[in-house]
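re: ur msg from earlier - yeah i can do the xanthosine-5'-monophosphate complex, just paste it... oh wait u already did. ok heres what im feeding in:
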Amino acid sequence: MDKVVVINFGSQYTHLIARRIRELGVYSEIVNYDEAEKVLKDPTVKAVVLSGGPLSVDEEGAPKVGIDFIEELREKGIKILAICYSHQLLAYLYGSEILKGIEREFGPANFEVIRDSPIFSGIPKRFRVWMSHNDSVKEVPKGFIHTGRTENCRVASMESIDGKIFSLQFHPEVSHTQYGLKIFDNFLKIAGVRREWNLERIVEEKIREIRKKVKDDKVLIAASGGVDSTVAAYLIWKAIGDNIYLVFIDTGLLRENEREEVVSNLKELGFKNIIVVDAKDEFLSSLKGVKDPEEKRLIFSKVYVNVLRRAFNELNDKIGGFRYLAQGTIYPDRIETGKAQKKADRIKSHHNVILAHEFGLEIIEPLRDFYKDEVRKIGKILGISDKIIKRKPFPGPGLLVRVLGEITEEKLKIIRKAHKIVEEEAKKEPFYDELWQIFPVLLDSKSVGVMGDKRTYGYIVSIRAVLSEDGMTAEFAKLPWKFLERVAKRIINEIKEVNRVVYDITNKPPSTIEYE
Ligand code: XMP
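and the outut:
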């Protein structure tokens, strides 16, 4: 299958580039800049996109590829599209000076095509683009022609005279750029890439592949009821039938009725072997007195693995024959972007990656190459109902990250009630499907209020609702006041311990989506 590789220089938007290309029916994967050479050995690579990045090209430690690499791609006839940081990198490699902080632009800008180019084919001469740069290209290097500008950025686009390299200062992958998808479509046409990324066919192939690999062995999967693990389990079930065993762990950090709902959904799908482990006490007693967010996450992970290991050992003693551990890992879980160097700060420890070898099992990750929206499409192709496919992401550690500070029974009771109210109200709204997530968070402080002439001192609930394409960047949702007012009223009226509700108006970055 033809492939387009996105070379990652650390932009927050790198995954978006790959997603856009897949939307256009072409398989795309991300390769880090320091492994770029492997692209040259892969005959299925038909085009390369060089991503943006947060550093300056002449800064120490700035991620780079060499001019030889670019020239080799060119010789092989592999077309190149460079975006933002890479636009500057190309200019720099071919001899242009980079201006620092003179033509900086952040946000929308008006772009003007000043010379016809196949990359802008079928697009008006002027359109709005999304910019995010401090530096800029001073002059068009030798061997390139100048194709576009904005009010504040002279060399906003250029291309090589031989028509093999296209270079843009703006971000076509961001939805705020008009005709962004059309630019990628033009690029794929120029590169002559075949559009073979067809999920229906790939699903059938995956099922055949799993069947061939697993044969009569048994597969264990930790099912959470979320989209990824459910679709992964179902795909495997389609391949091998009842040799898949689902373990659902009740961590005590679930929402109201979540355990019952998840188990009933899984049964409805046809799974026969569902093992429910009640580990509430173990989780809650291990977390007693712990306030630090990272420590909470680490304890959670440790207990989770222990509980799963015990459940597995019991099962294996009873029936045996296990060879594989399946996981609902998806592509962004595996490929980290949004950082310029390998040693970036650990922001949060996600617990999802369980080491299969600890269990003496081999791993299978049927969804490892897919994005969330593709996983949802796969679920749909397999006939899984909307109530499961449209489920909003719920973090593995559950309410642990939505109750700030120490976890107590009282706080869990409050957050569960708040969750129920927020979900009930949100599901009635037309905007619900468009939201990436909407949930309440219980803050670890109290504030003064007045109810019925009496002073109160109660908890604060924060409502978080975001729009996002993959959870890596997010915008807070501009929800109607009437809706927020209704939710706040219900929370105050129905949860006596709470006397204040606030709405979170921060984007990611600088905030994260979850609070811990
Ligand atoms: P943050 O808070 O990092 O969240 O902006 C990004 C997305 O990831 C989800 N999330 C998790 N999912 N295990 C998960 O399975 C985790 O430990 C975890 N932490 C955050 C979060 O809900 C959001 O969609």
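cool cool. Residues 348, 350-352, 393, 395-397, 437, 471, 508, 512-514 surround xanthosine-5'-monophosphate (CB under 6 Å). ping me if u need the other ligands too
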